[in-house]
Design goal:
Blueprint (H helix, E strand, L loop, with lengths): L15 E5 L6 E2 L2 E2 L3 H15 L3 E5 L16 H11 L3 E4 L4 H8 L7 E4 L6 H4 L3 H8 L4 E4 L21 E3 L1 H14 L6 E5 L8 H8 L4 E4 L3 H8 L14 H14 L2 E3 L3 E5 L8 E4 L8 E5 L1 H13 L2 E5 L12 H15 L4 E5 L1 H10 L7 E3 L3 H7 L5 H15 L1
Parallel strand pairs: 1-4, 1-7, 4-6, 5-6, 7-8, 9-10, 9-15, 10-11, 15-16, 16-17
Antiparallel strand pairs: 2-3, 12-13, 12-14
């Protein structure tokens, strides 16, 4: 397998670098509501400028359905990106064609151009070769710095990589390195904490992790299906009876691989009536009229004991309904413990996905873990063990470069 070529090792002076970024940020009232992705991407642009390149940035935003939609325009991103890099950003209201060409030329040193939403063109999501050629005409070198889009074989992440010298950007390489550190070459023992509502949404992830981890901690609503698979009555808790055979299969895979599955032994249960306060019960004593909405203190203690002996933690999903008090206490407690172990250099903690990010933020530990992935679908597909088209095409391009 060919290694990814790092744009930081390439000669870029006096050349135009076309960078595929993921600046799919929330827009509210015509303004960027959260600039996290822009701030993370800005160092890539600053480095290219410092090395004498001009930069053309392409991204998608929202789901415009292959046609121009002002609500999905990238225009508001230009001003925020300019502040983040400390340099003017010229916005061009198309990503291909003569208009984009005029915006990107001449490729003056130090110039930054942001092109309009890729998904205003249906051909982008169709991975159309002709569209990729038109897009490639905007640069001399191609860089994919959008790991979060790498699971899609789109024109700007896949077809274009065969048309220009193709490199990986720092953000993409950082994501790959972090996930490799958790899945491929982890410091052992390694644990995965997988939460969320449904087993059905994470079957492939659980099967893959059960064959690769030393420990898999199951939380959230999906834990109820596993408990049901072991014969527990989970009352009115969220449960997927159709997935009970799958839960048993995952337990069998783990047993055959020497992976220990940690399921709750107590839960915080609540009834439908507002006058009935939540209470901690054992998993063998969940009242028929109540539902489990968090794991209990005994389970938290067992999780902490596992983390204390582990050296790597891969976290995807909360332990309970953390958005509603008091059902976030277990998630927050485990997050704080993981952060303390990480700060003490005893644990490498890698997390990703929307819910884990929100849970860590609510616990106040976002800046105290090793790595927080901003990717969604790409992060999940990596956890499933699936190859990502946007990564694989860069490896192919790298292999062709090595042979030539």
């Amino acid at each position: 397998m060919s290694a990814l070529l790092d744009i930081r090792d390439a000669e870029v002076a006096n050349r135009t670098v076309l960078v595929r970024a993921d600046l799919n940020v929330p827009i509210s009232n015509g303004a960027v509501a959260d600039d996290t992705r822009i701030a993370r991407f800005a160092p890539t642009v600053r480095d290219l400028l410092a090395r004498g390149a001009s930069v053309v940035v392409v991204t998608h935003l929202g789901r415009p359905g292959g046609k121009a939609d002002p609500a999905c325009s990238v225009r508001p991103v230009a001003e925020v990106l300019a502040r983040a890099i400390g340099s003017e950003v010229v916005f061009v209201d198309d990503c291909v064609g003569a208009l984009a060409g005029r915006g990107a030329e001449p490729p003056a040193r130090g110039k930054v151009v942001l092109l309009e939403n890729l998904r205003f063109h249906k051909a982008e999501e169709e991975n159309d070769a002709g569209f990729a050629r038109r897009l490639a005409s905007n640069g001399d070198i191609y860089v994919n710095d959008a790991f979060s889009c790498a699971h899609r074989a789109h024109a700007s992440t896949h077809a274009i990589a065969g048309l220009l010298p193709a490199f990986a950007g720092p953000s993409l390489l950082g994501e790959v390195a972090a996930l490799a550190a958790a899945l491929e070459t982890p410091r052992r023992p390694v644990a995965a904490l997988v939460g969320g509502a449904k087993v059905s949404s994470k079957i492939a992830i659980l099967k893959n992790l059960a064959s690769r981890m030393d420990h898999v901690i199951v939380g959230g609503g999906m834990a109820n299906t596993f408990l049901a698979a072991q014969g527990h009555d989970v009352g009115r808790s969220l449960c997927e009876p159709d997935c009970i055979p799958l839960a048993r299969e995952i337990l069998a895979i783990a047993a055959a691989s020497g992976c220990r599955i940690l399921l709750p032994d107590d839960v915080v249960a609540a009834g439908l009536g507002a006058d009935e306060p939540p209470r901690v019960v054992g998993v063998d004593a969940i009242p028929a009229e109540m539902m489990a909405l968090d794991v209990g203190p005994s389970t938290v203690a067992r999780i902490d004991a596992v983390l204390d002996q582990c050296r790597t933690l891969l976290w995807n999903g909360p332990l309970g309904a953390f958005e509603t008090q008091p059902f976030g206490e277990a998630t927050f407690a485990v997050a704080r413990n993981a952060a303390e172990l990480t700060q003490a250099d005893r644990l490498v903690t890698i997390t990703g996905g929307g819910d884990p990010a929100a849970a860590l933020a609510a616990a106040g530990v976002t800046d105290r873990i090793t790595y927080l992935s901003t990717a969604g679908g790409a992060f999940l597909e990596w956890l499933e063990g699936r190859p990502l088209p946007g990564i694989e095409i860069l490896r192919t391009s790298a292999g062709q470069s090595e042979e030539s």
